[in-house]
Amino acid sequence: xxxxxxxxxxxxxxxxxxxxxxxxxxxxxxxxxxxxxxxxxxxxxxxxxxxxxxxxxxxxxxxxxxxxxxxxxxxxxxxxxxxxxxxxxxxxxxxxxxxxxxxxxxxxxxxxxxxxxxxxxxxxxxxxxxxxxxxxxxxxxxxxxxxxxxxxxxxxxxxxxxxxxxxxxxxxxxxxxxxxxxxxxxxxxxxxxxxxxxxxxxxxxxxxxxxxxxxxxx
Length: 218
Prior knowledge:
The chain has 218 residues and is α/β, with parallel strands linked by helices. 32% of the residues lie in helices and 20% in strands. The protein has helices spanning 19-28, 51-58, 78-84, 99-108, 126-129, 154-165, 183-188, 198-201, 209-217; strands spanning 6-9, 33-39, 64-70, 88-92, 112-117, 135-139, 171-175, 193-196. The two termini are 18 Å apart. The model has no long low-confidence stretch (mean pLDDT 94).
């Protein structure tokens, strides 16, 4: 399950005026997940969308909905996002007071549970919650805005997370500044899910999503 490289286009970089078409286009182009960045303007300095938008998209595609909660107090919103259609729900370790309990609750609702790690955050906590995880998301930019430059020192962090995950059936996802130039290094470090916004939707105004996705996978 975890050997194949999966691409998760972030719709934050898509054209919201024709989101219906964008979802269909990335599905036809070979995307594996739809990455949905939820920001609350508090945990991160940006505000995006909530459960109603996710629910409105759910019937458009059978792709995995990979929902990334960049919010304070994520426990207050878990049920809403699962009911809206999340297949994977990822919370930030920095926002959780009782991480193991939060992850366990997500799994108890029939949803896969993920934890996200900001660039400055130590990863050793993973050893304490590894049995409650389906996905680990390593942020390679400081979260809050799309289009940021990849932080090169995060390659070593990805490798260290891969060592902790080892052969477990846990996705290792990387998000932030992923493009055709650094994708190979990220994959070689152990990642098997690449979140890509600008490099899928806005590559030199190239709307050939199939070509963009295949370039990242290859």
